[in-house]
Batch of 2 targets.
Target 1
Amino acid sequence: MKRKRPISNKIIALLAGIFLASAGFVLASHLTEEQSAPPIIGSAIYSPPPNIAEIASHVEVVKDIRYHASDNAFMDLYYPKGATGPLPVILWIHGGGFIGGSKDSRQDYGMTLANDGYLVANIDYALAPGQLYPGPVIQANEALKFLNGSAAQYGGDMERIFVGGDSAGAQIASQLAALQSTPALAETMDLAPAVSSGQMRGALLFCGLYDMETVRESGFPNIDFFLNAYTGTESFETFGNIHEMSTIQHVTPAYPDVFISAGDADPLEPQSVALADSLRAKGVDVTDVFFRGTNKNLKHEYQYALDTNDGQETLQKTLEFLLEKSQAQK
């Protein structure tokens, strides 16, 4: 894996300090302004759907499949019990500021998607600062390559692929989708796409960052720390390959259809709005769920608050998008 380096004691101490100082993370996006905790990245705190026990009883779970020889390259698979016929495949990439997070925190959400008739591959990947960019993108591409050869064993149909993620995972997913559909990016990265653009049916992008030239302006807490760790620099804007990470610069008409969402109180929401506008300008079909002007106060990763009306409504719109795109003729 490219650009790997050991984690220094100084960085470990800094990471530990941030995590301990912000034990109340995060994805409690349904909290009020007065209740909200400092939004740093750690293990996700969110609310599964009230019927998660019933959902889990209908879903097969296969844990910790190694999809590549690189560090932390494991995936969990979820698919409906007794499913008949090929299932569209969803590759999901967790968030965590490129330095934290785990596939385990996305299991309930992955099972919820799978229960609607999908094979969901929920992946882990090596984290910064031990693994630098472009390591996670390479690993996600390797996960697609693995699924190309193995998904059928679990009922998956690799002619109907979706990639998705949240926060940092949405950035990786968006770049992965661009890699499959934009030959110029693949050439620049010197990375062969794992699948053809014809296999891609859509991208699911929750509260991500897509423009490295403007992301600092978002004011998202600790954004410079996360991106400095990921790029191995003292100032991420100086990183020589930073343009590769700006998905907004790699949008073409061949980019897959997109479902994109962010809360109105998420500092990264303008990043999603700008990407949606850029995609539409290139003729890409975009379904967006934004809340501008609603004063709902939906924070970063509100999509995982599945005990709330807004979380549930976005889930239903996500499932509608998946159904429409997976049934479409290509």
Note: The chain has one domain: 9-327.
Target 2
Amino acid sequence: MDNREQMNIVIVGHVDHGKSTVIGRLLADTGSLPEGKLEAVQEYCRKNARPFEYAFLLDALKDEQAQGITIDTARSFFKTGKRDYIIIDAPGHIEFLKNMVTGASRAEAALLVIDAKEGIRENSKRHGHIAAMLGIRQVVVLVNKMDLVDFDRQTFETIRREFGEFLHKLNIQPVNFIPLSAFNGDNIAVRSQRTAWYEGPTVLEQLDSLSNRKGNQELPLRMPVQDIYKFTAAGDDRRIVAGTILSGTIRSGDEVVFLPSRKRSVIQSIEGFNVSQRDMAYADEAVGLTLKTQIYIKPGELMVKVQDKQPQMGSRFKANIFWVGKAPLIKNKTYKLKIGTLKIGVKMVEILNIIDAAELNIDTFKDQAEKHDVAECIFETAKPIAFDPVTEMEQTGRFVIVDNYEISGGGIILEQVDDDCSSLQEHVRQRETQWEKGLIQPAQRAGIYGHKAKFIVLTSGSADHGPVIETIARELEQTLFRLNYKAYYLGVRNLLHGLAAEETIKDWSRDREIRQVGELARILTDSGQIFITTVFNLEDDEAENLKLLNQPSEILVITIGESPFYSFQPDASLEVEGAVAAVGGLLQKQEIILDYYL
């Protein structure tokens, strides 16, 4: 079995700058052409009185493909002593960009060809933008046709300086600029005497010096949770976490953390159907895992090793997306983002620039992306998610956007963006600015009611505890009411059949539920009441959103039974009377109520 290293290189350049000649020369000088192909093309040119060009070799390969021989003309193959190479050409910009952005193709580096005589053209800059938007950071600039300027060093240095400055603005540090004549073979595989002033590597030497991405097993562990299976038959009480390992390895005894919930546990066993127990699993395997500590996790979370490099977490990120939707990609519309096994609401909040894939025109003023546009955008998810920049971890750096149940775009994540002002924060800011207040101050209400306003959320890490939690909430309301406190309990289900009655079930979501509860809490606490509700399996970020929505009043989250939080322990037991007493004690301790007696 051939285990040679393989590397993908994309080659771009303005028309007639010699891109095809560079490819043909690389194929010929590395002995990578089919046997006799070079001689056959040379003989054909001789018989037809045509000057031979290495670009003709690609045309010859196209002819073979037309005859049914399996050669992909958009991909050229050659090898050196170090590794095998695939050069990805871009004959059609739309298909090329779609493949590169959506992941059908990938490249670790780019060769950008510039004609020394013609100099830097607009397309040269466009291709630089493409490299930047695709997240390609290893860029080698080939200054071709140096023979047409008599291998003039000053011409080369001018191009290196001017184009280097341009790439620097795109946050690309070019690996090297190489002067060459692909037609004559100067500095392709052999160092040229006609560029004695150039002391750098040849094209092949430069390619062999580039860094390649690691194999999946060498990367940090990334396993999106597909589902959690519970067994009850024959005394089997296992809870199996199922998913496919995208990268890295996992073994029994490894400490893992699930993101974004940050819940930790230790791998107890690696399960499989009808197979003997094993201690280790590898990238690309679908596995089932049991944990030593039973914690509540949900499908869509990302499992990583505690000791590994951690992914980034946030609700805002910069990404490039290739849009294929029937309707344009517009700002602040809610779409569905799918990354790993996670599906979550997402909005495009800002367009940085757009490339028309057909013409390669760059537009920094458009406010929506049309079909076949490549857009560099800022996206914001409904809640924080775990991801990696595509340059670090391709498996968790790619996503798709769904609009009206159809995949409408594929993208790559470039970097995390600070969540200084999320859409929710901006909404609360505007809401408070426009809030029409009455004449009665909160302190006046507290003096009359005998208590301060408070938003109380009862939660638990298990939906199985739902009936008990709801009973505790009702008993708490009744106990406070008997003490003449203005307490009000509202079940979350009432929102679906009340405030959100006009919304269909399929349009209802967990994020919308949290938003509705938070907005209602703002109104009820503003009236001075103690508002009580239950939200099962409340997560840290959801609690933060409720806290934000309830401003300026305060929130008290009470965890009963199993804790769903990473940073909080249970506040009360599942025993109703004891739980009610515990909550009352917390309210008194926080001076929400002054006297509390059961």
Note: Confidence is low (pLDDT under 50) at residues 63-73, 564-570.
